[in-house]
Amino acid sequence: MLGFIVNPESGHGAGSKYWTLVKETLQRKQIPFLYKITTGPCQAAGLTCQLIGEGCRTVVAVGGDGTIHEVTSALIKENEHKKSLLGVIPAGTGNDFARAHSIPIKPLEALEVILEGHSVTIDMLATETRTAVNSFGTGVDAEIVKMTNEASYKKWLNRIGLGKLSYLISTIRQLFLYKPCTVYLNIDGKTVAIPNMWLTATTNIPYYGGSMKICPHAVPDDGTFDIFVISSKRRWTLITALLSVYSGKHVHHPAVSFYEGKHIQISADRPLLVQVDGEMDRAFPLAISILPGVLTVIKPS
Asked: Which of 123, 150, 197, 227 could anchor a disulfide with 259, C-beta 3.0 to 4.6 Å?
């Protein structure tokens, strides 16, 4: 039985539109399904548990990376999580998870992938209290997420279909407001001190922040995570490093460092905000571990 978790607000209303198309297609093909619709944040995990309890072996997230984050956090907590599969109908603004797993952006094409049923097991990231299917981030990006979520201009821009501009505005503001700090990374027992840190991302996939391929060599099923760090005394250097991500030249940028491992402890000379798959968290310092092969995902063969 297919079960769907639908976030109608994702992608500035794309979730609702896509679900209408998917629902009509399922009914026309006479495919049995159940569904739950979220009416606010932090509901998808509980609704996922309900669907599993009602006999759904496959749970499909119709939404963005935040919805996928909630659904997967519930899937791996179920005692028989390896028997439950994750499907995705991408309907967010960033869709990093879908992009990393070659899941079609068009909803009916994504549905066909789910109906074909080819699946693979992938890793996840975890702290003592949170799990992530994409990444943990700390530094300026977490401040950007917080500022955007609290900004009055986000709602106004969403209403006119220009929601992505809210992140651009927040990014420009934080480039002048954020103060870099010294961060300490203990990776598999070895400690590295990095002064003037702007961004530290621990990621399981190449993409970050909506299409930025920051860790091009990250693989979601290799039993390790990748770490991306930007550090610089000069703000202009940060800007050039971020801009070079889109061309892929950031891998040679002097302000950028890469690491990989299975366990990492992140601390700093002051408290920092954290974002988990784009959702805010205040659990800092961080201790992140890889959870190998804990999630089964339906993706193109």
From this structure: 227
Kindly give the parts of the chain with pLDDT less than 70.
79-82, 164
pLDDT at 74: 94
Residue 212's Cβ-count burial label (10 Å; 0-12, 13-18, 19+) is middle
What is the C-alpha separation between 124 and 134, in angstroms, rounded?
A: 8
* pTM exceeding the 0.70 threshold for the entire prediction: yes
Look at residue 28 in the predicted model and tell me its pLDDT.
97
- Is the CA virtual torsion 290, 295, 297, 301 positive or negative? positive
Tally of CB atoms within 10 A around 57: 13
Model pLDDT, residue 80: 52
